[in-house]
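Entry 12.
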Amino acid sequence: MKQIVSAALAGLVSVCSYGGARAQANPYAAKPTTPTVTYPRVNMATTYAVVPGWPTRRPDVGWGQVCAVALDRQENVWIHTRTNQAVQVYAADGRFLKSWPAPGTNSIAHGLRIDAGGNVWLTDVGRHTVTKHSPDDGRVLLTLGVAGEPGCDEKHFFKPTDIAFAPNGDLFVSDGYGNARIVHFDKDGRFIHAWGELGTKPGCFSIPHNIVCDSHSHVYVADRNNARVQVFDAQGNLLDVWSDLLVPWGLWLSPQDDIWVCGSGPMEWSVDPKYPTAPLGCPPKDQLVMRFNTAGKLLQLWTLPKAADGEEKPGTLNWLHSIAVDSQGNLYCTDIIGKRVQKFIRKAIIR
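Predicted 3D structure (tokens):
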């Protein structure tokens, strides 16, 4: 009987050992009698390469937190930064072209857009204004809001964040950090109407942070704290909500009506001791760029390395805040803590 039990145990040990050996085997390890598979090493995904040292920075023109980037018709690169000179312009090859000072005291740069006529619009959360400027000398052509006076009526903003332009020239301002609404003006700055309030329900906002308007006058709003992009018609009627995709910081609209969104992945609210009063996603857990069509279909995703504070290197980003895309598909990205703008060249792919 003992011999039978011993033999059974020996068989069981042999089976277990065989099973363990099989579980630890590498399924990709080539066997002497098995032919290997050579996968085609073709890069099918769109990727980008940073241009180190871009742009050429003048020693007498510094950078602070770089909040906005835009391209003019010559694809010169305009940035809005929290220092003097607040507006800076660079050629596509990185040459410094010109700069302007901040528009006044208590200025806190936030948005920069260029309209179809080439005029430059600056959004200032410190002065509670959106100003239209001549691209030649920075001369102020129109002011929306009252400098130094926060409010929530037809004439006042409370920390506005961005401006968008409809095909007919109408203006849409995201208002913003203090208020939670979109304000609609005609091309001459006359108030038409406003919509939105603080909240999480569809149509409400919690930091409407960036805004663009497509060729059909549909308005796209980066509803940052609510981790969604909301889409409206020009009358403020809600058309669509793109939720659970990212915490959106910046928007860029291509001539083909592609909507580029930059920001970070969806995340829960948390309190970082370094930034105890910061909004959602500060600091972000990652950095990403998405491209959508007007129906909300995701067409492209690209992620970038998140840099630690004080350890930023070319190709990393630290609080990605805005994005612009040129006619070649190259990206310009700005970050807040990294205090810079970087150019990323689109690599050729196989289709």
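Annotation: The mean pLDDT is 92. Helices lie at 2-23.
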